[in-house]
From TrEMBL:
Zn(2+) 2 binds at residues 152, 179, 232. One of its GO terms (molecular function) is allantoinase activity. PANTHER family: ALLANTOINASE. One of its GO terms (biological process) is purine nucleobase catabolic process. Residues 49-238 form the Dihydroorotase catalytic domain. It comes from Sutcliffiella cohnii. The active site is at 305. This is Dihydroorotase. Belongs to the metallo-dependent hydrolases superfamily. DHOase family. Class I DHOase subfamily.
Length: 429
């Protein structure tokens, strides 16, 4: 099987945008050149100058299966990923049951094989049922193919449990991926403790609820030499703690979501649960610190924290509705339109934060297009202008605050292992 991508545009080794043809043979990149001639038995796809990117990688995705199939399944979530240009995603373990045993993880791996259209890397839990008490069997879970360990959805409250987890993870050369939230500081909040909570008389989640866990954990990471990764960083204090920890040589990495880069509490128009997520949208100064942290390398890359919920659940009102918004199908167009087009960062930077940077952080083989690499490739139409319409999402989750945002730069084709799995207008399962 051979496919020829004709007349694309890409960043060459020197980081310059230029014209390129790519030949894919048996799922791998076989040849890259300014001009390749189509062979007789070969399928050729004319790209008309469209942009060729390595397939995006998102290490923070909630696929909800098993147990939450009303919100999303591995199939629907992976199709949403393909539509968003993501070829590798990592599935968070806050499902029912949780992947905390070899048997559960094996079940999940099989289910992924049967139903996913992109690469899905399964996380395993740090603690049994994510209760924060007993460590899972890390050796066994690593052996069964765990991508990394996390209890995302809840913070690990007990410092001794976290210390033991990091010791074990370090010995196995695995990462601890942390949802940072100190339960005694949540304050029953549904939004950030700041202007919005004051104006609306709501309980707020203070910034320190997150940063105090990161401060604790970077010291635990230092004492264990564990790779410690911070999920969805959201406050200026958290950014400072990570920056200082990196300077001190601690093995810490961090991700930021598109929504925390794009929005602050000032942008919440009314009491609307499509603006409710954990961590919450913070203050303007936090939003600015996140962008600065990304630009100066304190924050390593972007991850969506795609968190689908049903419309019924989201209609429950701000206090009762679950935390979380979807992200896979809007990440690139939102970031391209609002940051690249406005000259705040470059297309090259954006692509790096969605590809090589997560790949390097978690030592994944993907994230680059080079001869011999697996052909995980995303084609983007940088001229295409469309409004965000949740009714068009392939995700079951329609919970987004970005409805009707006009965006330029949409993925139009996604190749996984050399196979076209999504093309604008149709899913190729
Ligand atoms: N981010 C969210 O607001 N929600 C996530 C949980 C999480 O990522 O902590 C979910 O599972 O819905
Ligand atoms: Zn989380
Ligand atoms: Zn999450």
């Amino acid at each position: 099987m051979s496919t020829l991508l004709k007349n694309g545009t890409w960043f060459n080794e020197k980081g310059e945008l230029n014209r390129v043809d790519i030949r894919i043979v048996d799922g791998k990149v076989y040849e890259i050149s300014e001009h390749l001639i189509r062979k007789d038995d070969e399928e050729a796809i004319e790209l008309d100058g469209k942009f060729i990117s390595p397939g995006f990688i998102d290490v923070h995705v909630h696929l909800r299966e098993p147990g939450g199939e009303k919100k999303e399944t591995i199939e629907t979530g992976s199709k949403a990923a393909a539509k968003g240009g993501f070829t590798t995603i990592a599935a968070m373990p806050n499902t029912r049951p949780t992947p905390d045993t070899k048997e559960q993880l094996n079940w999940l791996t099989n289910r992924i094989k049967e139903t996913s259209v992109v690469n899905v890397l399964p996380y395993a839990c740090i603690t049994t049922r994510q209760l924060g008490e007993e460590l899972t069997n890390f050796e066994e879970l690593k052996e069964a193919g765990a991508f990394a360990f996390t209890d995302d959805g809840v913070g690990v409250q007990n410092a001794s449990v976290m210390l033991q987890a990091m010791k074990k993870a370090a010995a196995l050369d695995m990462a601890i991926v942390a949802h940072c939230e100190e339960n005694t500081l949540i304050n029953k909040g549904s939004v950030h403790e700041g202007n919005f909570s004051k104006q609306h008389g709501l309980n707020g989640i203070p910034s320190v609820c997150e940063s105090v866990h990161i401060a604790r954990d970077v010291l635990l990471a230092e004492s264990t030499n564990c790779h410690y990764h911070v999920c969805h960083i959201s406050t200026k204090e958290s950014v400072r703690v990570v920056r200082d920890a990196k300077r001190a040589g601690i093995r810490v990495t961090a991700e930021v979501t598109p929504h925390h880069l794009l929005l602050s509490e000032e942008d919440i128009p009314s009491v609307d649960s499509n603006y409710k997520m954990n961590p919450p949208l913070r203050g303007k100064a936090d939003q600015e610190a996140l962008l600065q942290g990304l630009l100066d390398g304190t924050i390593d890359f972007i991850a969506t924290d795609h968190a689908p919920h049903t419309s019924e659940e989201k209609r429950e009102g701000l206090q009762l509705a679950p935390f979380g918004i979807v992200g896979l199908e809007t990440a690139f167009p939102l970031l391209y339109t609002n940051f690249v087009e406005r000259g705040i960062f470059t297309l090259k930077q954006l692509i790096d934060w969605l590809t090589v940077r997560p790949a390097e952080t978690f030592r994944l083989p993907s994230g680059k297009i080079e001869v011999g690499a697996v052909a995980d490739i995303t084609i983007i139409d940088l001229q295409l202008n469309e409004k965000i319409d949740p009714e068009q999402f392939l995700s079951k989750g329609k919970n987004t605050p970005f409805t009707n945002w006009e965006c330029k730069g949409w993925p139009v084709m996604t190749f996984v292992n050399g196979k076209l799995v999504w093309e604008k207008g149709s899913v190729h399962a």
